[in-house]
Design brief:
single chain, about 250 residues, mainly alpha, about 60% helix, about 0% strand
């Protein structure tokens, strides 16, 4: 079972009337993430027991404000909305068509970087090892989708790194929110700590490779101007909502 944030999953981001990108930026230039990431933990190791302890400890967050944030972070297509407070504006296909198209195209590279090691390690999700509530339904599809590395976090961290470049004066806020986006998978109980950490590293691998591609750098130059214009035009997100979100982001869930 593969992790997906491909064309269908991010269709809400696509510029209306534009043809969907047939491929990502990297092609054969995609690094071998399996060879770079540390191996998935196995029973009897310190990392394996740390995963179990983190899962069990974070079950106390059920029905808390952080639990609600984690539920909101489940929808991968809403990543730019999730980063709105951090960025200073919500980016959409209407006010940032080239930026959202760039994000859509990157999604295909993230999927490929994630699915290789997932298929090799076939690491079980934490709720299949220990009992505990999750913030999403425990479906058969979810259970068959391997844990390591977290594709959700690889996606969130990749987008966070890209947005930090496009709005560098907001880089601290953007990267803190992107970190919290990945940690939401811990709060939800659907990923182990090691999978979230590996997902963050996987996103960094993808972004490093992207910068070697002329097409990506050219699209980033256009997106940088587009994001600046969108931030200037506004509207800015609700200040009260953003303050509450920042308070949650500032507190570690584990």
């Amino acid at each position: 079972m593969h992790w997906k944030v491909g064309l269908a999953a991010v269709s809400a981001m696509v510029l209306v009337g534009a043809a969907p990108a047939p491929q990502g930026y990297l092609g054969d230039a995609l690094p071998d993430s399996y060879a770079i990431l540390p191996p998935a933990p196995v029973a009897g190791t310190t990392r394996y027991e740390a995963d179990r302890a983190t899962f069990l400890a974070t079950r106390s967050l059920k029905d808390s404000a952080r639990w609600s944030m984690a539920q909101g972070d489940v929808d991968q297509t809403a990543i730019l909305k999730d980063l709105a407070c951090a960025t200073g504006v919500e980016l959409t296909p209407r006010n940032a068509p080239r930026t959202t198209a760039l994000i859509q195209r990157i999604a295909l590279d993230v999927s490929r970087a994630t699915n290789g090691p997932k298929d090799i390690y076939k690491r079980q999700r934490p709720y299949l090892i220990d009992e505990g509530p999750t913030c999403v339904d425990k479906t058969e599809t979810l259970a068959k989708s391997p844990d390591y590395p977290s594709g959700h976090n690889a996606w969130g961290w990749t987008v966070g790194l890209i947005m930090a470049e496009l709005a560098p004066d907001r880089a601290t806020q953007i990267l803190a929110r992107a970190r919290a986006f990945g940690e939401s998978r811990l709060v939800c109980g659907v990923h182990n700590l090691s999978a979230v950490e590996a997902g963050r590293l996987n996103g960094s691998i993808v972004v490093a490779a992207l910068h070697g591609q002329d097409a990506f750098r050219e699209d980033m130059d256009v997106a940088r101007k587009e994001v600046a214009a969108a931030r200037k035009a506004g509207p800015a997100p609700d200040a009260g909502t953003c303050a509450a979100e920042a308070a949650l982001v500032a507190k570690s869930p584990y």
